[in-house]
Amino acid sequence: MTDDLLQIKQKALDELKDLNKLDDIYNLKVKYLGKKGSLTFVLRNLGKMLPDKRREVGMLCNKVKVELAAAIESAADKVKLAEKNRKLLEEKVDTSLPGRRPALGRLHPVNKVNEEIKDIFLRLGFVIQEGPEIETDYYNFEALNIPKDHPARDMQDTFYISKDHVLRTHTSPVQVLTFEKQSPPIKIIAPGRVSRCDSDVTHSPMFHQVEGFLVDTDVTFGDLKGILIAFIHQMFGEKIAVRFRPSYFPFTEPSAEVDMQCVICMGKGCRVCKKSGWLEILGCGMINPAVFEHVKYDTEKYTGFAFGMGVERIAMLKYQINDIRLFYDNDIRFLNQF
Ligand code: DAH
């Protein structure tokens, strides 16, 4: 019997040697030490033995059991340690590596310039107001003193949505929308998208404008000049010369176009300013009383000025971009420069 026990022990130890998986080790434990295991079987049968033999075999059996249990436990510990080391090695973190920077987005140049324009006028005390991109014929034309047969309708190639609805061709309709809801004093800028059926290096079918208008008692052309010169100086620099050139818009009277000294050649004459030394940057004028009559403002009491500018044009001058379509190609190499 004792030989049997020693044999069982040797067999178990031999088997254990070859095991390197925890599951296999636990299975071996069950096989020898479990309820139906070989050693348990011997212990169960002790009762059938003579007392002397029983003592001897019982003691040996317990000894083998303890030794086997210890051997199994230590084998299991080894496997667990090896597994832990393997994991640590695999998941090693090099804390000396530099961090990964998140890729930051940036403002589109048109948005950037739009923000700059808004900031300048906000500092001058203007308030921002927006209007719809789809307008009725009335607000886009009629109420701005551009009746149906008026030649000025040809100045702008309009996208018609229906007989009476258009994609607004300019931000000037916000003037009328505002006058209908508010009484003077009014000091507003209206930035937004506009559309015209036109496309080449300097025209995009969709582009951005900023409209500005101020209505109060005693507003003069001098006020308009002061505000616009301040704007151009803040946008392009104090040294830039500005001139007001007589022009025509149905909704202003008198009207002017504003030119600034060419920022590329500083007035000497170049390709961008077509050798004139000047760049046209916006339209403006004193609001035509005909517009005030549509909204029942007292034209004896109130006067006002208005102006409108193209954001893409200003961005092109500021960053010296020669093709408006670059803004809408979404070429990351172009956009990354701003
Ligand atoms: N709405 C004009 C256009 O898109 C620009 C303009 C000119 C706006 C004169 C004005 C203005 O407010 O007074 O061509």
Bound molecules: 3,4-dihydroxyphenylalanine
Outline the low-pLDDT stretches. none
Secondary structural class: alpha+beta
Largest sheet: 7 strands, mixed
**Number of discrete helical segments:** 11
Helix content: 40-55%
- β-strand number: 9
Kindly report the name of the CATH homologous superfamily of the largest domain: Bira Bifunctional Protein, Domain 2
Spatial ordering of strands, largest sheet = 1-4-5-9-8-7-6
Residue-averaged pLDDT, rounded?
92
The CATH top-level class label of the largest domain: Alpha Beta
Multimerization state: single chain
Question: Cα-atom Rg, whole angstroms?
Answer: 44 Å
Supply the number of structural domains: 2
Quote the CATH topology of the largest domain: BirA Bifunctional Protein, domain 2
- Percent strand equals 15-25%
Structure notes:
- With 338 residues, the chain is of the alpha+beta class.
- It folds into two domains: 2-90; 109-335, BirA Bifunctional Protein, domain 2 (2-Layer Sandwich), CATH 3.30.930.10.
- 41% of the residues lie in helices and 19% in strands.
- It has helices at 2-17, 22-33, 38-44, 51-90, 109-123, 137-140, 173-181, 221-236, 289-294, 311-319, 332-335; strands at residues 127-128, 134-136, 165-167, 186-195, 206-216, 242-249, 252-261, 278-287, 303-310.
- A seven-stranded mixed beta sheet has the order 1-4-5-9-8-7-6, sandwiched between helices. A two-stranded antiparallel ribbon has the order 2-3.
- A hairpin with a 2-residue loop joins strand 6 and strand 7.
- The model has no long low-confidence stretch (mean pLDDT 92).
- The structure holds 3,4-dihydroxyphenylalanine.
- 3,4-dihydroxyphenylalanine (DAH) is lined by residues 170, 172, 211, 249, 252, 283-285, 306-308.
